[in-house]
Each structure stands twice: as C-alpha cells, then as structure tokens.
Specification:
By secondary structure, the protein is mostly helical. Helices cover about 70% and strands about 0% of the residues. It has nine helices and no strands. The longest helix is centred in the last third of the chain and has 31 residues. The termini are far apart. The mean pLDDT is about 75.
C-alpha cells in the first residue's frame, strides 16, 4: 500500500467494508455498525498523529473500532435491560453439565480433533460455519461470545460493560460456548471429515 493510499481520504474505500463486517459480527444491527464505523473513522482522523505505524493501518483502525463497539454495547445495556440475570439457570446447567462430563470432569463423548489451529483459522469453510453458528445464537449469547472470544474482553470488563454479575456472565458464556461448539461440530467438522473422505 502506498503512503498516499493510506491517507485518511482513502480509509473508507480501503477499510470500510472490513470494519463494517467486523462491527456487524459484534453488534448485529446495521445502524449501530454504521455508527461504530463512522465514529471509528472520526476518532482515527483526530488521533492520526498518534499512529506510529507499529501495526498495520487496518489493525489500528480495528483497535479503535473495538472500543467504539464496547461503548455502544455499554450505552445500549444501560438503555435496555437485555441482560437481566437468569433465575432458572442452575438446574438446567447442572443437567447439561452432567450429560456432557463424567464424575472426573472429562468429556463423556470423546472430542473431535480440531486440527492445527492456524490452519483451521485460514479455512474459508470454517469462517462460513462460524458466522452461521454465531448468527444462530440469541443476541445476548452472540454479544457475550463475540466480546469475550473475538474482542478479548476479560470477565470483569464484560460484567462492567453489560452490568451483570460474574456468575451470570459465566453462565451466559458457558451456554454460548457449548452452543458454538455443538454447531461447529455439526456444520463444520462433520462437513470437513466428509470432504476428506
């Protein structure tokens, strides 16, 4: 990329689609994703003198976007109580846990090998299945999963952003991870093994 193509007037053309897709994965709302990208580009324009070039321009813009996404979710959770504590979780979770793990805490059904993680992440089929599975989650589970697993927020940060307790956070993450695992095993691992045969 030439220095001229990295000028702010080219950011939207060079990175807009990527930033919008990234925001949609987390926010699942077109208007909010567009706002997040717009806020990101404005913040980057104001802070461009701070960009040292230690990372790629896209990585820098994505870092700003992550903060904007968290701000939107924090604001949204204050406006609307989407993340009310689950009161019926304990019995259902214990039954689910008993069906998945033995008394030593090991999986009752041997887990399928997921292969080399670096190779897996590069496979287009994986990302197609991943996005399909993420879209299949409820908004609450999808938000939690993407903030934790894609954005890397810690539990304490999630609890603060979403105004929930630590135990409720763990329950929601547990459900999201189990749902994603089962969906990926069905829609990606199974298809991958069929393709290898």
């Amino acid at each position: 990329m030439t220095e001229d193509s990295q000028a702010p007037c080219h950011w939207l053309d060079a990175h807009g689609d990527y930033l919008f897709r990234f925001a949609m994965k987390h926010l699942r709302d077109t208007a909010q994703a567009e706002d997040a990208v717009q806020d990101t580009l404005l913040a980057a324009l104001q802070a461009q003198k701070n960009f040292t070039g230690a990372s790629s321009q896209r990585t820098w813009l994505t870092g700003i976007l992550k903060h904007k996404i968290v701000d939107i979710i924090r604001r949204h959770s204050r406006e609307k109580a989407l993340y009310a504590p689950d009161t019926d979780t304990q019995n259902g979770d214990e039954a689910l846990e008993d069906s998945l793990f033995d008394e030593r805490g090991e999986w009752t059904v041997p887990q399928t090998s997921w292969g080399n993680p670096e190779t897996v992440l590069e496979q287009e089929r994986f990302w197609t299945a991943f996005l399909y599975c993420l879209d299949g989650l409820s908004p609450k589970l999808a938000h939690m999963f993407s903030l934790r697993e894609l954005s890397g927020l810690q539990t304490s940060e999630l609890c603060e952003v979403l105004n929930i307790s630590t135990s409720n956070c763990w329950v929601i993450l547990y459900r999201a991870r189990i749902a994603m695992k089962e969906c990926l095993e069905f829609h990606w691992l199974q298809d991958n093994h069929k393709a290898d045969v």
